[in-house]
Amino acid sequence: MGGTEQKYVSEAFESNWVAPLGPNVDNFEKDLCQFTGAKHAAALSAGTAALHLALILSDVKQDDLVICQSFTFSASANPITYQGAIPVFVDSEEETWNMCPVQLEKAIKACLSGEIEIKKKGKVGAKKPKAIIPVHLYGMPAKMDEIMAIAKKYDIPVIEDAAESLGSTYKDKQTGTFGKFSILSFNGNKIITTSGGGALLSNDETLIQKARFLATQARDNAPHYQHSHIGYNYRMSNIVAGIGRGQMEVLPERVKQRRAVYQWYNAYFQNVNNTKGYNIVLQPEAEGSLSNRWLTAVLIDPERNKGLTKERLRLALEQENIESRPLWKPMHLQPVFDYAPFFGNGTSKKLFDQGLCLPSSSNMTEENMQRIKVVLDRVLL
To answer: Which fold has domain 5-250?
Structure first.
């Protein structure tokens, strides 16, 4: 917490405005727009809720095709199935670890030509995908120029998953401002948090108004409770939004802190690579991009690191009660999505096989870093 969150939460209590909606929600939405440059925002209960509404507003329905980055958390793909649609997974490229533009275009062409095949069901017929969902993984901006050019070429809307990348920029423009829709997450582990929550961003005011309508149970404008559409209980509460307002005040500092953690790791691994003959690779930052470095992740190829594996390092850290985690397991390798088509060359699987997320909290202390260093020294030196 930054320190001012309690003030906004107290205001909500003092005014007895603790239910969904309220002044904190309105002002939090304004703060998000001012920071990102998006014209309109709807504060919601979760990033997943934001993505679900974006798919609904993109007219995604039963048996439609939606292209989604495979190398991501399941929340990027789950809402596709809420609509009964079919996810078409696309592999990553090595420069950013995000959606590969080459594989993206292959997937689109396959959809348009009727080559998409569903396990145990066969081919689904020629269909134009209803949406493309790229993800800015671990805060690293995807190759948005190429992705947006392909999306424009085939006239397919982009839903930008910026859940992990608030505060990151691509060619001096904030992530979350490229797609027709963009989604943010304020879950407890994100760079800023409202304990739980998310937001939907768009430059289209009408679409955001529709999102707010659907997120408040789609109640019609009538003196009685009347509903002409299926609605959802997806709006953010005034208390949660108060936390968000305080968090927005410290977001630039959080980005600075996370990048400082990355720089510490980068200096350490550069040293052991140069002096001890290792080849441990950190997630690269492509030219023109600035990552918030939400998480610092490394790749450890045993063949290039004296037999060292990510699992050996993870277990060594775990012995000292220091948590690290493997990179996301790609969606096309998940049992729940084993039926879904995939376009790729194995990049995301290699990243999963070799990758580890290291402790990267904004409040990492020098003592924390030294505890990590002791373990790294023991394993590597």
So the answer is: Aspartate Aminotransferase; domain 2 (3.40.640)
